[in-house]
């Protein structure tokens, strides 16, 4: 099919899925107090190559209908990938049966009707490709071939191309029924370099809602090769305390720990180092974080969250001060008090396009390296050494040693450690090399000082 046909077919499919969700709601409403129904259906291709040969081709077109019923503060869930009326009624009955065995929970139930997204914004998220397998194979193979042209690139872990689109529909017994379509495309390459018996693996990728906005296969292959070769000959360093500069693709993870720590679930379970932190300064006063869920073509954009709550722009951090926790309908009720009732922040299911803004002039990556003068650039992290209860942070890492404001040589087999409270408050600067492929969009982050465990 061509793109025009795919657009028409997916539109028809969305309307069909909306009818299925509406039908499920009507059946369930006759049996329980309230119900919510959602479906996410994905269609696409995944192609991988290795050394120029096609290794794998996958086509997928699947989706699961999820049904949640509520009665007398009890809740039951069931799902089905069979969308026939008989299968849907069977799933509803199973959800009701499961509900009977659950304990009453006064915080469960549908969200506040006044917050529901009865009108769904068009955020320009749908830019499907024609799912051309030949084109996908050529792109993956070309990225590989470009990387393998480098003399010190000896092996390939593969070229990968993905193109897909999804349809999301959500409805509930309050009368909300909305859906939207979104696309996703990516191209990546992973290779292995060798020098004097020392081997390193490196990769590069590009992703976008619009396939036309992807970087070229040649650019991805070149980037993968250059990143890999730059880490050959890595040395070990001694244990010390020095400034640390996190490159953009790992800096987003550092901010991701903040998002996890202020999630409603972590707060009501009292499993966060940021308990009772609303109104407190947790980042430098020159730093602000905003959530912008309605950015056109945004990777984290969505007109509503998984509770059906209408998304909206909000301040997460203003001049270093925490403004809000990230609340679903359930966690909002759980954390409410008679003195301070809370509402959902439309973050059920995750965050939506965080942007870091500074009062200071941003710097390029090279300027940040010069500002650091002596220290470490971290380009990759490994391990799960983050304790969100205490904020203790310890991750295996690799990167580069910096001296006199210049990168000197690659380093590996060291650990960066500290406490997230201290790390966040000691951010010195943020670069203008913004990572745009993730829901958290920020540049390199320079930390004043961290502990390094080396040889």
Could you explain the architecture of this structure?
This is Metalloprotease PmbA. Residues 35-98 form the Metalloprotease TldD/E N-terminal domain. The protein is of the alpha+beta class. It folds into 2 domains: 3-230, PmbA/TldD fold (2-Layer Sandwich), CATH 3.30.2290; 240-453, no CATH class. It contains 9 helices and 17 strands. It has helices at 3-29, 85-99, 133-148, 217-230, 248-261, 264-268, 329-335, 365-372, 420-425, and strands at residues 34-50, 53-71, 74-80, 153-172, 177-195, 198-208, 240-246, 287-291, 314-318, 321-322, 354-358, 375-382, 392-403, 406-419, 427-430, 440-441, 445-453. The strands form 3 sheets. It has a 6-stranded antiparallel β-sheet with strand order 3-2-1-4-5-6. Strands 7-12-13-14-17 form a 5-stranded mixed β-barrel. A hairpin with a 2-residue loop joins strand 2 (53-71) and strand 3 (74-80). The model has no long low-confidence stretch (mean pLDDT 95).
Summarize this structure as a short list of keywords or feature phrases.
9 helices, 5-stranded mixed beta barrel, 455 residues, single chain, alpha+beta, 17 strands, 6-stranded antiparallel beta sheet, 2 domains, PmbA/TldD fold
């Amino acid at each position: 099919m061509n793109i025009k046909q795919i657009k028409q077919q997916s539109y028809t499919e969305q309307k069909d899925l909306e009818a299925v969700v509406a039908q499920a709601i009507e059946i369930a409403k006759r049996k329980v107090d309230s119900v919510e129904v959602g479906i996410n259906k994905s269609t696409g291709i995944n192609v991988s190559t290795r050394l120029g040969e096609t290794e794998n081709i996958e086509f997928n077109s699947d989706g699961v209908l999820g049904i949640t019923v509520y009665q007398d503060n009890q809740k039951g869930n069931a799902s089905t990938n069979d969308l026939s009326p008989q299968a849907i009624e069977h799933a509803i009955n199973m959800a009701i049966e499961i509900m009977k065995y659950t304990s009453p929970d006064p915080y469960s139930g549908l969200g506040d009707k006044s917050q529901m997204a009865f009108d769904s914004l068009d955020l320009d998220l749908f830019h499907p490709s024609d799912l051309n397998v030949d084109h996908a194979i050529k792109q993956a193979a070309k990225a590989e071939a470009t990387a393998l042209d480098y003399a010190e690139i000896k092996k390939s872990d593969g070229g990968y191309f993905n193109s897909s689109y999804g349809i999301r529909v959500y409805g509930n017994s309050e009368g909300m029924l909305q859906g939207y379509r979104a696309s996703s495309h990516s191209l990546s390459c992973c290779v292995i370099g060798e020098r004097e018996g020392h081997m390193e693996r490196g990769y590069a990728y590009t992703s976008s809602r619009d396939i036309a906005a992807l970087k070229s296969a040649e650019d991805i292959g070149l980037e993968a090769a250059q990143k890999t070769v730059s880490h050959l000959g890595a040395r070990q360093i001694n244990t010390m305390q020095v400034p640390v500069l996190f490159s953009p693709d790992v800096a987003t993870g550092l901010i991701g720990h903040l998002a996890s720590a202020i999630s409603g679930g972590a707060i009501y379970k009292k499993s966060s180092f940021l308990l009772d932190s609303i109104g407190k300064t947790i980042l430098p006063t020159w730093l602000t974080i905003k959530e912008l869920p309605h950015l056109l073509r945004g990777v984290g954009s969505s007109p509503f969250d998984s509770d059906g709550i209408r998304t909206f722009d909000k301040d997460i951090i203003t001049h270093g001060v925490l403004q809000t926790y990230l609340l679903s309908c359930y966690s909002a009720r759980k954390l409410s008090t008679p003195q301070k009732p809370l509402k959902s922040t439309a973050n059920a299911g995750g965050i939506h396009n965080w942007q870091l803004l500074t009062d200071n002039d941003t710097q390029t990556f090279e300027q940040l390296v010069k500002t650091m003068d002596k220290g470490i650039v971290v380009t990759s992290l490994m391990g799960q050494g983050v304790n969100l209860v205490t904020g203790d942070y310890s991750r295996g890492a690799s990167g580069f040693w910096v001296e006199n404001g210049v990168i000197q040589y690659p380093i590996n087999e060291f650990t960066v450690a500290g406490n997230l409270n201290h790390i966040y408050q000691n951010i010195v600067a943020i670069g203008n090399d913004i990572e745009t492929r993730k829901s958290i969009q920020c540049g390199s982050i320079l930390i004043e000082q961290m502990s390094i465990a080396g040889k």
